[in-house]
Protein backbone atom coordinates (compact mmCIF):
# COMPACT_ATOMS: atom_id res chain seq x y z
CA UNK A 1 0.00 0.00 0.00
CA UNK A 2 1.15 3.53 -0.71
CA UNK A 3 -0.42 6.68 0.64
CA UNK A 4 -0.42 9.91 -1.34
CA UNK A 5 -1.52 13.40 -0.41
CA UNK A 6 -2.98 16.03 -2.71
CA UNK A 7 -3.99 19.10 -0.75
CA UNK A 8 -6.66 18.02 1.72
CA UNK A 9 -7.21 14.77 -0.15
CA UNK A 10 -5.48 11.64 1.08
CA UNK A 11 -5.46 8.47 -1.00
CA UNK A 12 -4.59 4.98 0.22
CA UNK A 13 -3.67 2.88 -2.80
CA UNK A 14 -4.33 -0.62 -1.54
CA UNK A 15 -2.64 -3.49 -3.37
CA UNK A 16 -2.82 -7.26 -3.13
CA UNK A 17 -5.26 -9.27 -1.05
CA UNK A 18 -7.54 -8.00 1.71
CA UNK A 19 -8.48 -10.55 4.34
CA UNK A 20 -8.63 -10.56 8.13
CA UNK A 21 -4.86 -11.11 8.29
CA UNK A 22 -3.77 -8.30 5.97
CA UNK A 23 -6.51 -5.88 7.10
CA UNK A 24 -4.67 -5.30 10.38
CA UNK A 25 -1.62 -3.85 8.57
CA UNK A 26 -3.72 -1.78 6.20
CA UNK A 27 -5.79 -0.39 9.04
CA UNK A 28 -2.84 0.77 11.11
CA UNK A 29 -1.10 2.28 8.07
CA UNK A 30 -4.16 4.24 6.97
CA UNK A 31 -5.08 5.38 10.48
CA UNK A 32 -1.58 6.61 11.31
CA UNK A 33 -1.49 8.75 8.15
CA UNK A 34 -5.07 9.93 8.69
CA UNK A 35 -4.32 11.24 12.18
CA UNK A 36 -1.18 12.97 10.94
CA UNK A 37 -2.66 14.56 7.79
CA UNK A 38 -6.22 15.32 8.93
CA UNK A 39 -7.55 15.18 5.33
CA UNK A 40 -10.98 16.47 4.25
CA UNK A 41 -11.32 13.56 1.84
CA UNK A 42 -10.03 10.04 2.36
CA UNK A 43 -9.94 7.93 -0.79
CA UNK A 44 -9.55 4.18 -0.47
CA UNK A 45 -8.37 3.09 -3.90
CA UNK A 46 -9.07 -0.60 -4.44
CA UNK A 47 -7.92 -0.76 -8.06
CA UNK A 48 -4.80 -2.73 -7.08
CA UNK A 49 -6.72 -5.26 -4.99
CA UNK A 50 -6.62 -8.79 -6.35
CA UNK A 51 -8.81 -10.42 -3.70
CA UNK A 52 -11.16 -9.23 -1.00
CA UNK A 53 -13.51 -10.91 1.46
CA UNK A 54 -15.83 -9.27 3.99
CA UNK A 55 -12.77 -8.06 5.91
CA UNK A 56 -12.51 -5.42 3.18
CA UNK A 57 -16.00 -4.26 4.10
CA UNK A 58 -14.95 -4.14 7.74
CA UNK A 59 -11.89 -2.11 6.77
CA UNK A 60 -14.03 0.46 4.96
CA UNK A 61 -16.64 0.64 7.72
CA UNK A 62 -13.92 1.03 10.32
CA UNK A 63 -12.40 3.97 8.42
CA UNK A 64 -15.87 5.48 8.07
CA UNK A 65 -16.13 5.64 11.87
CA UNK A 66 -13.04 7.85 11.85
CA UNK A 67 -13.94 10.03 8.87
CA UNK A 68 -17.41 10.68 10.28
CA UNK A 69 -15.88 12.07 13.48
CA UNK A 70 -13.85 14.67 11.58
CA UNK A 71 -16.48 15.37 8.87
CA UNK A 72 -14.12 13.96 6.28
CA UNK A 73 -15.64 12.42 3.14
CA UNK A 74 -14.81 8.76 2.56
CA UNK A 75 -14.49 7.73 -1.09
CA UNK A 76 -14.38 4.09 -2.15
CA UNK A 77 -12.76 3.99 -5.57
CA UNK A 78 -11.60 1.38 -8.05
CA UNK A 79 -13.79 -1.47 -6.77
CA UNK A 80 -14.68 -4.16 -9.27
CA UNK A 81 -18.39 -4.96 -9.65
CA UNK A 82 -18.24 -7.98 -7.41
CA UNK A 83 -16.44 -6.24 -4.54
CA UNK A 84 -18.75 -3.24 -4.91
CA UNK A 85 -21.70 -5.60 -4.47
CA UNK A 86 -20.08 -6.98 -1.32
CA UNK A 87 -19.56 -3.46 0.05
CA UNK A 88 -23.17 -2.62 -0.61
CA UNK A 89 -24.39 -5.58 1.46
CA UNK A 90 -23.50 -3.39 4.44
CA UNK A 91 -25.76 -0.53 3.31
CA UNK A 92 -22.77 1.81 2.95
CA UNK A 93 -24.16 3.35 -0.23
CA UNK A 94 -26.89 4.93 1.91
CA UNK A 95 -24.62 6.37 4.56
CA UNK A 96 -23.93 10.06 4.67
CA UNK A 97 -20.33 11.01 3.92
CA UNK A 98 -19.51 7.95 1.79
CA UNK A 99 -19.11 8.08 -1.96
CA UNK A 100 -18.56 5.29 -4.44
CA UNK A 101 -16.43 6.32 -7.38
CA UNK B 1 -25.81 -39.44 -2.31
CA UNK B 2 -23.81 -38.17 -5.23
CA UNK B 3 -20.72 -40.11 -6.23
CA UNK B 4 -17.37 -38.64 -5.20
CA UNK B 5 -15.07 -38.19 -8.17
CA UNK B 6 -12.12 -36.62 -6.39
CA UNK B 7 -11.46 -35.36 -2.90
CA UNK B 8 -8.91 -34.09 -0.41
CA UNK B 9 -8.67 -33.48 3.32
CA UNK B 10 -6.31 -31.32 5.26
CA UNK B 11 -6.01 -29.72 8.61
CA UNK B 12 -4.15 -26.55 9.28
CA UNK B 13 -3.14 -24.43 12.27
CA UNK B 14 -5.76 -21.79 13.06
CA UNK B 15 -3.48 -18.85 12.32
CA UNK B 16 -4.58 -15.82 10.34
CA UNK B 17 -1.57 -16.17 8.03
CA UNK B 18 -3.20 -19.42 6.81
CA UNK B 19 -6.33 -17.66 5.52
CA UNK B 20 -4.65 -17.01 2.17
CA UNK B 21 -3.10 -20.48 2.16
CA UNK B 22 -6.48 -22.20 2.61
CA UNK B 23 -8.22 -20.28 -0.17
CA UNK B 24 -5.26 -20.87 -2.48
CA UNK B 25 -5.39 -24.63 -1.87
CA UNK B 26 -9.14 -24.74 -2.48
CA UNK B 27 -8.68 -22.61 -5.59
CA UNK B 28 -6.14 -25.10 -6.91
CA UNK B 29 -8.48 -28.02 -6.24
CA UNK B 30 -11.42 -26.27 -7.91
CA UNK B 31 -9.19 -25.39 -10.86
CA UNK B 32 -9.10 -29.09 -11.77
CA UNK B 33 -12.69 -28.56 -12.95
CA UNK B 34 -11.92 -25.63 -15.17
CA UNK B 35 -14.20 -23.13 -13.38
CA UNK B 36 -14.90 -19.63 -14.65
CA UNK B 37 -12.96 -16.75 -13.11
CA UNK B 38 -16.16 -15.73 -11.35
CA UNK B 39 -16.73 -19.21 -9.88
CA UNK B 40 -13.15 -19.38 -8.70
CA UNK B 41 -13.49 -16.02 -6.93
CA UNK B 42 -16.73 -17.15 -5.32
CA UNK B 43 -15.07 -20.29 -3.98
CA UNK B 44 -11.98 -18.49 -2.72
CA UNK B 45 -14.09 -15.85 -0.99
CA UNK B 46 -16.43 -18.33 0.69
CA UNK B 47 -13.47 -20.39 1.96
CA UNK B 48 -11.76 -17.27 3.25
CA UNK B 49 -14.89 -16.35 5.22
CA UNK B 50 -15.32 -19.78 6.78
CA UNK B 51 -11.65 -20.17 7.69
CA UNK B 52 -11.51 -16.68 9.17
CA UNK B 53 -14.54 -17.46 11.33
CA UNK B 54 -12.80 -20.53 12.77
CA UNK B 55 -9.80 -18.38 13.70
CA UNK B 56 -11.56 -15.24 14.91
CA UNK B 57 -14.67 -16.69 16.54
CA UNK B 58 -14.17 -20.43 17.01
CA UNK B 59 -10.75 -20.27 18.61
CA UNK B 60 -10.69 -16.53 19.34
CA UNK B 61 -7.08 -16.27 18.22
CA UNK B 62 -6.02 -19.10 20.53
CA UNK B 63 -4.36 -22.19 19.14
CA UNK B 64 -6.43 -24.83 17.43
CA UNK B 65 -6.81 -26.58 14.11
CA UNK B 66 -9.07 -26.11 11.15
CA UNK B 67 -10.31 -29.22 9.34
CA UNK B 68 -11.00 -28.90 5.66
CA UNK B 69 -12.66 -31.50 3.54
CA UNK B 70 -13.43 -31.04 -0.11
CA UNK B 71 -15.00 -33.33 -2.67
CA UNK B 72 -15.79 -33.07 -6.31
CA UNK B 73 -19.13 -34.79 -6.81
CA UNK B 74 -20.59 -36.15 -10.00
CA UNK B 75 -22.40 -33.42 -11.88
CA UNK B 76 -19.55 -30.96 -11.35
CA UNK B 77 -20.47 -30.02 -7.81
CA UNK B 78 -17.77 -28.97 -5.39
CA UNK B 79 -18.61 -29.71 -1.76
CA UNK B 80 -16.52 -28.01 0.90
CA UNK B 81 -16.64 -28.63 4.62
CA UNK B 82 -14.75 -26.39 7.04
CA UNK B 83 -14.81 -27.27 10.70
CA UNK B 84 -13.32 -26.14 13.99
CA UNK B 85 -13.37 -27.53 17.52
CA UNK B 86 -13.80 -24.10 19.03
CA UNK B 87 -16.44 -22.44 21.17
CA UNK B 88 -19.43 -23.13 18.91
CA UNK B 89 -22.45 -20.92 18.26
CA UNK B 90 -25.42 -20.56 20.66
CA UNK B 91 -27.96 -19.44 18.07
CA UNK B 92 -27.01 -20.32 14.52
CA UNK B 93 -29.89 -18.60 12.77
CA UNK B 94 -29.22 -15.34 14.62
CA UNK B 95 -25.52 -15.62 13.75
CA UNK B 96 -26.41 -15.99 10.07
CA UNK B 97 -28.40 -12.75 9.94
CA UNK B 98 -26.71 -10.06 7.82
CA UNK B 99 -24.61 -7.63 9.89
CA UNK B 100 -24.81 -9.80 13.02
CA UNK B 101 -21.46 -10.00 14.75
CA UNK B 102 -20.27 -10.76 18.26
CA UNK B 103 -16.70 -9.76 17.58
CA UNK B 104 -16.95 -5.99 17.45
CA UNK B 105 -13.59 -4.67 16.29
CA UNK B 106 -13.78 -4.48 12.54
CA UNK B 107 -15.85 -7.51 11.66
CA UNK B 108 -18.67 -6.53 9.33
CA UNK B 109 -21.08 -9.33 10.25
CA UNK B 110 -21.32 -10.24 6.57
CA UNK B 111 -19.35 -13.49 6.50
CA UNK B 112 -22.33 -15.85 6.38
CA UNK B 113 -24.18 -13.53 3.99
CA UNK B 114 -21.21 -13.60 1.63
CA UNK B 115 -20.85 -17.40 1.93
CA UNK B 116 -24.54 -17.76 1.15
CA UNK B 117 -24.53 -15.49 -1.86
CA UNK B 118 -21.35 -16.95 -3.35
CA UNK B 119 -22.38 -20.61 -3.05
CA UNK B 120 -25.37 -22.74 -4.06
CA UNK B 121 -26.07 -24.16 -0.63
CA UNK B 122 -24.81 -23.47 2.86
CA UNK B 123 -25.33 -25.58 5.95
CA UNK B 124 -24.06 -24.63 9.40
CA UNK B 125 -23.93 -27.09 12.26
CA UNK B 126 -22.68 -26.00 15.63
CA UNK B 127 -22.63 -27.07 19.25
CA UNK B 128 -21.64 -24.67 22.02
CA UNK B 129 -18.41 -25.87 23.55
CA UNK B 130 -17.82 -28.41 20.75
CA UNK B 131 -17.30 -26.48 17.56
CA UNK B 132 -18.76 -25.46 14.25
CA UNK B 133 -18.96 -27.05 10.82
CA UNK B 134 -19.86 -25.18 7.66
CA UNK B 135 -20.69 -27.15 4.52
CA UNK B 136 -21.17 -25.43 1.22
CA UNK B 137 -21.66 -26.61 -2.31
CA UNK B 138 -20.95 -24.91 -5.58
CA UNK B 139 -21.75 -26.08 -9.06
CA UNK B 140 -18.93 -25.54 -11.51
CA UNK B 141 -19.74 -25.03 -15.15
CA UNK B 142 -16.45 -26.33 -16.57
CA UNK B 143 -15.53 -29.95 -17.22
CA UNK B 144 -13.99 -32.12 -14.50
CA UNK B 145 -11.41 -34.77 -15.19
CA UNK B 146 -12.29 -37.91 -13.26
N1 LIG C 1 -16.66 -20.88 13.57
C1 LIG C 1 -17.36 -20.13 14.43
N2 LIG C 1 -17.29 -20.36 15.76
C2 LIG C 1 -18.00 -19.60 16.64
N3 LIG C 1 -18.81 -18.58 16.28
C3 LIG C 1 -18.92 -18.31 14.97
C4 LIG C 1 -18.22 -19.06 13.98
N4 LIG C 1 -18.54 -18.55 12.76
C5 LIG C 1 -19.40 -17.54 12.99
N5 LIG C 1 -19.64 -17.38 14.30
C6 LIG C 1 -20.56 -16.39 14.91
O1 LIG C 1 -21.39 -15.87 13.90
C7 LIG C 1 -21.24 -14.44 13.81
C8 LIG C 1 -21.42 -13.97 12.39
O2 LIG C 1 -20.39 -14.45 11.55
P1 LIG C 1 -20.08 -13.70 10.18
O3 LIG C 1 -21.35 -13.59 9.41
O4 LIG C 1 -18.94 -14.36 9.52
O5 LIG C 1 -19.69 -12.22 10.64
P2 LIG C 1 -18.35 -11.69 11.36
O6 LIG C 1 -17.27 -12.72 11.19
O7 LIG C 1 -18.05 -10.43 10.65
O8 LIG C 1 -18.71 -11.49 12.80
C9 LIG C 1 -19.89 -14.16 14.42
O9 LIG C 1 -19.77 -12.85 14.90
C10 LIG C 1 -19.82 -15.20 15.53
O10 LIG C 1 -20.57 -14.79 16.65
MG1 LIG D 1 -16.88 -13.78 9.53
How is this structure best described in words?
The complex is a heterodimer of chains A (101) and B (146). Chain A is built from three helices and five strands. By secondary structure, chain A is α/β, with parallel strands linked by helices. Chain A has a five-stranded mixed β-sheet, with helices on one face. In chain A, strand 3, helix 2 and strand 4 form a beta-alpha-beta unit. The model of chain A has no long low-confidence stretch (mean pLDDT 97). By secondary structure, chain B is α+β, with helices and mostly antiparallel strands. Chain B has one domain: 2-Layer Sandwich (Heat Shock Protein 90). Chain B has a five-stranded antiparallel β-sheet with strand order 1-2-3-5-4, covered by helices on one side. Chain B starts with a strand and ends in a 7-residue tail after the last strand. The model of chain B has no long low-confidence stretch (mean pLDDT 95). Classes of the chains: A alpha/beta (101), B alpha+beta (146). Chains A and B meet through helix 1 and helix 2 of A and helix 1, helix 2 and helix 4 of B. Magnesium ion (MG) binds next to helix 2 of chain B.
Number of strands of chain A: 5
Flag low-confidence runs of chain B. none
Q: What do we call the CATH topology of chain B?
A: Heat Shock Protein 90
CATH superfamily of chain A: STAS domain
Helix content of chain B: 25-40%
Strand order of the largest sheet of chain A: 1-2-3-4-5
**Ligands, deduplicated:** adenosine-5'-diphosphate, magnesium ion
Strands ordered across the widest β-sheet of chain B: 1-2-3-5-4
In this structure, how is the largest beta sheet of chain A organized?
Answer: 5 strands, mixed
- What is the domain tally of chain A? 1
Q: Pair with the most extensive interface?
A: A-B, 20 and 25 residues
Average pLDDT of chain A:
97
Beta content of chain B? 25-35%
Within the CATH hierarchy, at the fold level, what is the topology of chain A?
Answer: Transcription Regulator spoIIAA
Count of structural domains of chain B: 1
Amino acid sequence: MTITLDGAEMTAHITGEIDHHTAAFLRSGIDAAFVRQKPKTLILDFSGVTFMDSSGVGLALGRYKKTKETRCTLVLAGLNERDKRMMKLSGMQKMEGIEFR
Amino acid sequence: MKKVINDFKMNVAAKSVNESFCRAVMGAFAALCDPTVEELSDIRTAVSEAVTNCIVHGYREQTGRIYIDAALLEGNVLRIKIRDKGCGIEDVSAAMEPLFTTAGGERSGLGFTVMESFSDSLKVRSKPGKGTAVTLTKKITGKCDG
